[in-house]
Write a structure and sequence with these properties.
The protein is of the alpha/beta class. It is about 35% helix and about 20% strand. The chain has a 5-stranded mixed β-sheet with strand order 5-7-6-8-9, with helices on one face.
Length: about 230
């Protein structure tokens, strides 16, 4: 079985989601309109703290895919899971494709993986999920153009990443690089990827009513802001 609504209304579904997690029920919750990209509907319809809250729930796999390929991979993982519920956090707005061809391996099954390698010895690692992976990729281009070798890590499912072997997690985290995370949501929880010295580019409060493109600029969730955050730590 599956349920579907706006991401912000997961608040109303939360008791059922939580009971399903306790019971290990094989349910998929499809949550769309997952960020300030909702736009003119305003802050009442724009989830901010919801991703952090849902990621904190034991037994629930929260998937926030970046594009069509990751969505297909995450859906396959959700359908195949037999021991608990999954939640798909999907956007309203369009986003550039991070991957145009599916690989033989389901990369999303690792929870987080290197989407784009650095051109040379990496100095910066940008972590992101969902529609902001496009922002991360654009920031990488800006940094690479300045000779700053930058890699991008997509993080579609934190729960699956936490279950990976320690050696793999360390290779993805690349603690010897400057680490930046970008997500149009609250920062809570991102320290597991960027540490205490990393930089988070995202929401510090509630959203507003305006077209999505303007909101991303107003709240500083742009490729330029991510590149500047990385350079401030170099």
């Amino acid at each position: 079985p599956y349920a579907g609504t706006f991401m912000v209304f997961s608040d109303y579904s939360r008791p059922a989601i939580r009971l399903g997690a306790i019971m290990g029920a094989r349910v998929i919750h499809v949550m769309t309109h997952d960020s300030i990209g909702v736009g003119e509907d305003g802050p009442t319809h724009q989830p901010i703290e919801h991703l952090a809250s849902l990621r904190a729930m034991p037994g629930l796999n929260v998937f926030r895919p970046a594009d069509l390929v990751e969505t297909a991979e995450c859906w396959k993982l959700a359908v195949a899971r037999k021991d608990g519920p999954s939640l798909m956090a999907l956007s309203l707005q369009k986003t550039p494709a991070a991957r145009t061809v599916a690989s033989s391996e389901n990369l999303s099954a690792k929870g987080a993986y290197e989407l784009a390698a650095a051109d040379g010895a990496a100095k910066v690692t940008i972590f992101s999920s969902g529609t902001e992976v496009g922002v991360a990729m654009a920031a990488r281009e800006l940094l690479q153009a300045e000779g700053i070798a930058t890699r991008v890590v997509s993080t579609p499912c934190w729960e699956l990443f936490a279950a990976q072997p320690a050696a793999y997690r360390e290779s993805v985290l690349a603690r010897n690089t400057v680490r930046v995370a970008v997500e149009a949501a609250a920062s809570f929880g991102w320290e597991r990827f960027i540490g205490e010295d990393g930089v988070f580019v995202g929401m510090q409060g509630f959203g507003a009513s305006a077209p999505a493109d303007r909101l991303y600029k107003e709240f500083g969730i742009t490729a330029e802001a991510v590149a500047a955050a990385a350079k401030s730590k170099l």
